[in-house]
């Protein structure tokens, strides 16, 4: 069975926001065996929306629509959705109650007439109550295609998808299983990988699809398959993945999963009862921010220091001034001192230290823009490496943060 | 004139990546007066791609395609693109040279046959040389619709768009001007705003469009217009925006621009010759990371400390232990001490301090999940406030970081 996603909103088409809803919905639909045929972003325009609905109906069994359900004039989705099915809007008392409750819960002023207009809904639709906003979701099952309209605010959409849409989808549709497994590799380009695995790729069973996903410094290899028998499906993909991993054992670092590298580090260290900390110069808090976005980070992460100004590396962290003067602030000896002293200051077992030139100007460094020295403090000493990450500031920070976490993971996985 | 964007790749439709290319392209096209009619994401599938090309041709004068140009088997865009125009692939010696140069520049091994296959290009296409990757862009001008195919790797796409595509677009098309201006407001819901400005909204000239963009704690109000006369256009939007800002003066904090709030703070302080620093507990580096992603951050930003573990607030930052014990670690007195001591430690004029419970568990705090205390250190003392940001960890961190930067901006704008 196939789904289509339609996201509605001028803000998407003028590039004012990035549409993250589609990726979330696609991933969740895949998990329950539903393949997404197409994602279409259209304007807040009645004619355009109707056209998109017509087109989607041709391919899909399920159409998920987000956006355009707000209480203001620029939002035309609800009326258009209603008209598409030749339906009329009627007041739903349960939505009225929900609006009142929301205003009470969030201690807002009295609801306005516009808020209560959210209770006008298509008479034939099943209403999906929104606990986090005033716009309800709508489920319309007509002519064997199900259309679902959800608000565009991400957390409202996510909540409704999880609580109301997916349980209904699982009940209503006969779905196969979809299984993806993705191997992460570092250090070899996609052409070189393709050449190395060519014989194996040519012999891959027809129902297993291989995709190459290159990005900054890494290539991900994804195997995908769809089928009725979940166990057989997983077994067949897993066994091919084993062969692939074996062939690429020198460059493979693991599989992509729900767990990010920062989360994985936190879990491993928590299990070991050990701790870590960061001293970030050129990455400016990016690594700490990555670490602390996961729940439970505090059980292994002690904290961090961002000695952005060169003098602070000495003042707060205690890196000897003569080392900075002798080797330059962007250097392996300085990175290693930072890592050692970070462990000491934060009383942690491990540490990450970064010093580099993110650009676009050279700052206090002598090297080229993009030069970054990373050191990892461990209970058995320090390891370090110097990198060139190009001349785009954003990419330098991103690559350095990824590489630093990768280096730490390697160290904590040793024992 | 209208454009369409087609992004190609199974990774988008299974939700493995978020399509950020479309937003970037839309924004850049808008800047040169081109409106994007629709964005469509399709699979790495020949038939599906051909269908998308056909559909796009119906509405658009310009079709920008990204993705599927890699050297591996799963990439089918180039052959499909070529076939769509009834063209044949021929070898372009300039691309061969480019591949060789790239391998030399990045000190890679000898190019493989797969890399040289990138030089097979449609005979009728104008080739757009890619300085950062082996896949060239292709510009095809047939039947009065221009189709442009670009690689999907974001920095390769951006480079080609800026250097090769936009200059050609500006030359080839007669374009109007598009002008957007967006007012940022905090503290009032969209319905309440709509009610307050209803009379003005009803009287808005037909060619100016108003949009409401609600998100975490803020509502953005965008006015958009399109026209031939750039000056008249801007004047008419700006004068309406002035009225709007006046009506919402109690909740408006400024206009959305190229400058983010963190960048703006850096600029203002640099001009004043003043500095700032951060002490982030619950925001865990998020604020510092936001600050340091902009070039030039180092001229005003001294650095930061992330005393994630409660004991570190005393040990490194020097917050008296008895204050933490008396008031609890998540409290206004602790936030204020952190802010004061942060200024001292980093020898900065201003500081931001955050302490809170991001959740999902309470940690060392006594309050509810989502409670955050923010203090701003200034040359004239400390200001602070306590907030409830809900129970979603990611949102708590995001809201706290935004609010903290907003509070600092307010302080530095006072004199």
Automatic annotation (TrEMBL), chains A, B:
InterPro entries: CinA, CinA-like_C, CinA_C, CinA_KH, Competence-induced_CinA, MoaB/Mog-like_dom_sf, MoaB/Mog_dom. It comes from the Bacteria. It holds the Pfam family CinA. Residues 4-172 form the MoaB/Mog domain. SUPFAM superfamilies: CinA-like, Molybdenum cofactor biosynthesis proteins. Gene3D superfamilies: 3.30.70.2860, CinA-like, MoaB/Mog-like domain. Belongs to the CinA family. PANTHER family: NICOTINAMIDE-NUCLEOTIDE AMIDOHYDROLASE PNCC, NMN AMIDOHYDROLASE-LIKE PROTEIN YFAY. This is CinA-like protein.
